[in-house]
């Protein structure tokens, strides 16, 4: 499970060092792809395969499903971290997420997310009120 917030830097070759806590789960391979809110989703290879299988269940007649799957899969890149735990983020994904040098890598349960650090700070500020006002209807059984 991916948890926490980490603050790595992007190097001049477009690589980041994965947080130590995430490396074991991602050591055999990972998939980077476009995430919602202009971040990059990071899935273990196994979790990405599970998500893809769920997507395959969507009716091909659903335009919204087709659109989502096209955007999601066309941006996907499978990567294997090097021995230092570094992974290269393809230029197209760096551009999509507006990544600068300072990053926020967050745990989101079954996936991690890579954000530009300032974009993450802005997102948190925007979501603070909604977070504190979330009720049981949104997440049944949690509160």
Automatic annotation (TrEMBL):
Subcellular location: Cytoplasm, Nucleoid
Major subcellular location class: cytoplasm
Keyword Chloroplast belongs to the record: no
Entry keyword annotation includes Membrane: no
Keywords: Cytoplasm, DNA-binding, Repeat, Transcription, Transcription regulation
Pfam families: MraZ (PF02381)
SpoVT-AbrB domain mapped to chain residues: 5-47, 76-119
Gene3D superfamilies given in the database record: Transcriptional regulator MraZ domain (3.40.1550.20)
InterPro entries per record: MraZ (IPR003444), MraZ_C (IPR035644), MraZ_dom (IPR020603), MraZ_N (IPR035642), MraZ_sf (IPR038619), SpoVT-AbrB_dom (IPR007159), SpoVT-AbrB_sf (IPR037914)
Alphabetical list of CDD domains matching this protein: MraZ_C, MraZ_N
UniProt subunit comment: Forms oligomers.
PANTHER family noted in UniProt: TRANSCRIPTIONAL REGULATOR MRAZ (PTHR34701)
Annotated family: Belongs to the MraZ family.
Protein name: Transcriptional regulator MraZ
